[in-house]
Amino acid sequence: MRKMLSLISSALRLSAGRTGSRVVVSARTYADFTPQATFDIKKCDLHKLEEGPPVQAVLTREEGLQYYRTMQIMRRMELKADQLYKQKIIRGFCHLYDGQEACAVGIEAGINLTDHLITAYRAHGYTLTRGGTVREIMAELTGRRGGIAKGKGGSMHMYAKNFYGGNGIVGAQVPLGAGVALACKYQGKNELCVCLYGDGAANQGQIFETYNMASLWKLPCIFICENNRYGMGTSVERAAASTDYYKRGDFIPGLRVDGMDILCVREATKFAADHCRSGKGPIIMELQTYRYHGHSMSDPGISYRTREEIQEVRSKSDPISMLKDRMLNNNMASVEELKEIDVEVRKEIEDAAQFATTDPEPPLEDLCNHIFHNEPPLEVRGTNPWVKLKSVS
Amino acid sequence: MSSLFSSLKMMTKGAMRCVLITNHLKFFETIGNFQLLQVTVRDALNQAMDEELERDERVFLLGEEVAQYDGAYKVSRGLWKKYGDKRIIDTPISEMGFAGIAVGAAMAGLRPICEFMTFNFSMQAIDQVINSAAKTCYMSAGLQAVPIVFRGPNGASAGVAAQHSQCFAAWYGHCPGLKVVSPWNSEDARGLLKSAIRDDNPVVVLENELMYGVAFEVSEQGLSKDFTIPIGKAKVERPGNHVTLVSHSRMVGHCLDAAAVLAKEGIECEVINLRTIRPLDVETIEASVVKTNHLITVEGGWPQFGVGAEICARIMEGPAFNYLDAPVIRVTGVDIPMPYAKILEDNSTPQIKDIIFSVKKTLNM
């Protein structure tokens, strides 16, 4: 049956001619794909926990395609940002997330949009998973009025519903996240807060203050350390006396998770979310992940690590490739289908980049707006005493 | 009615436990007279918080010793008993952590009051106050509001030495995105704290420990549950024609005392109580200078880059400059870390004689 169909399809393609319309031949129907499959995932290292997340995960075809698409969008978006930065269309700080896609997408798959999330400055991926559009994100990077923060925030200060940024001060987002969790508990809506930080931030004192209070008050907070092995140019061995970040919470139970495997991340997040929602208090997840880019666009990323190391991770552990291989090997999707998604993603990114480079910059009248919330208009001093600017909220 | 009686009960207890620090403390008026009531600044703050906690269930208080200890300075006395663990939260000694938690809670829809035992300790958390609270509404283009109050005693106390005596009016007053208020008397304390709690933006309330035990008359209107004082408006406490004295917090009392002494010599001082440090009510100061032609600022904090320095700059940039008959004079704390010995400490902050001396200097007497 398949041989016949492929014969027909090639015949049709030939007859369509070189400039002819693309002949869409459905070589396989959806009924031929495996609707779902079970995969073995790595067991998590546990700290102060009797049991961990399951070692098997069920992935449906729809989920697989959705995760693939989202991760590809994230990947392409970050690469496009790299391009625009090198063209000097994006300025200032730009911390790219490529390589870590499984973390953002996997976490979101384990929680609800009604839950809350806060992270540090490597935030473009999370802005996307929390509901921001690629257009809004890119226009914010290029500082245009169509940006998610109207051009006022930039790369590190993007916000969305139940997403509290985007925070520039290393570690400051962790107490903020616990505060969000406190509000969740206070308001009794069975919501939780996912509070992310990196291996570099993990040594911040305020994080330990937060561990203490979150544990004392049993706040519904999932602390997640995205360990990408380097805090800017400093490897974890040179920064931390203990690199077992999942144990650093001491009295807080912890999990060490393969952050390159989206299913592993998802299952661990679900496990952690259940822990929080059952009123047991906070939990820590360490995601072992990797960033392909340097710390930011001003860091080539090869002075403190070898190109070989980067290449090895890319070839052996790339999160998107891993998912793609799983789906193809289990007949959950076709090569063409995934290629089609790639093409659509490319187009979406191109459109967004087009918007981000052509949308006008914010109007000067907006300069002093939004200093306050819900406030009558006020006067703001300009650069000299005769410049009196107006601020509306 | 019942709140008045409970305030009376609290005030009786308070009056018995209060340390009488200044000579302003008066005993009770007749209890039957509800027109004017003697309320200490401490009780005014307590009532304000009590009323706002009752009014809006999103309001809660957190800080060191605020709950079971009744407050390090007893400002939150009785609140934990009334509202419980959920709304009055004792924190460990973790300023940076709990200030951040308070800001996060504000971002997620609550209305926290974050108490710093003194504002000296807020320095450990100042990143959360400025970078997480003050700047967020702007950075998010209005998407993310931060309705939080940071409050606590500010400035010099008595014998607590250098690390516990700094005035933070200038530091916080410097930053856009913050509102900063500095109450002097009980009515200020009630009205400004209530406004701060009802404000959808970060407000820093700089109280004064030495004023907590001082009682002032508060009108019936001032005792009503919805009494608020607008943030950003100064008050002329005493009208006068010869010189304008501008001050905030405890120094307002010193200015009034100096004015009383000078009045005997025929010099009438106009005393302005700033009430708000940021936004500064320059118009009220200018209107006064137009009338008196002489301006003296009085503050407890250090001179360099201080509140007085800002007022000088603003007056120079505005219409009142042309009405000045003499340069603006700043009376400030001495430019040193606060010493301990009483004689040294007494000579480190403005005394009434310093204000009188400056008035006579500017009037060429």
From TrEMBL, chain A:
Keyword presence, Electron transport: no
Domain Dehydrogenase E1 component stretches: 70-364
Coiled coil: none
Cofactor: thiamine diphosphate; Mg(2+)
Keyword Phosphoprotein: yes
Protein name, per record: Pyruvate dehydrogenase E1 component subunit alpha
Keyword line: Carbohydrate metabolism, Glucose metabolism, Magnesium, Metal-binding, Mitochondrion, Oxidoreductase, Phosphoprotein, Pyruvate, Thiamine pyrophosphate, Transit peptide
Species of provenance: Pygocentrus nattereri (Red-bellied piranha)
InterPro entries: DH_E1, PDH_E1_Alpha_Subunit, Pyrv_DH_E1_asu_subgrp-y, THDP-binding
Class in the EC hierarchy, top level: oxidoreductase
TrEMBL record, chain B:
UniProt KW Transit peptide keyword: yes
Domain Transketolase-like pyrimidine-binding span(s) in chain numbering: 39-214
Major localization class: mitochondrion
Cellular compartment(s): Mitochondrion
GO cellular component, one term: pyruvate dehydrogenase complex
Broad class of enzyme this protein falls into: oxidoreductase
Keyword Isomerase: no
InterPro entries (UniProt xref): PDHB_mito-type (IPR027110), THDP-binding (IPR029061), Transketo_C/PFOR_II (IPR009014), Transketolase-like_Pyr-bd (IPR005475), Transketolase_C (IPR033248)
Cofactor list: thiamine diphosphate
This protein's UniProt keywords: Carbohydrate metabolism, Glucose metabolism, Metal-binding, Mitochondrion, Oxidoreductase, Potassium, Pyruvate, Thiamine pyrophosphate, Transit peptide
GO molecular function terms noted in the UniProt entry: metal ion binding; pyruvate dehydrogenase (acetyl-transferring) activity
Subunit note: Heterotetramer of two PDHA1 and two PDHB subunits. The heterotetramer interacts with DLAT, and is part of the multimeric pyruvate dehydrogenase complex that contains multiple copies of pyruvate dehydrogenase (E1), dihydrolipoamide acetyltransferase (DLAT, E2) and lipoamide dehydrogenase (DLD, E3). These subunits are bound to an inner core composed of about 48 DLAT and 12 PDHX molecules. Interacts with DLAT.
Protein name listed in UniProt: Pyruvate dehydrogenase E1 component subunit beta
Provenance organism: Pygocentrus nattereri
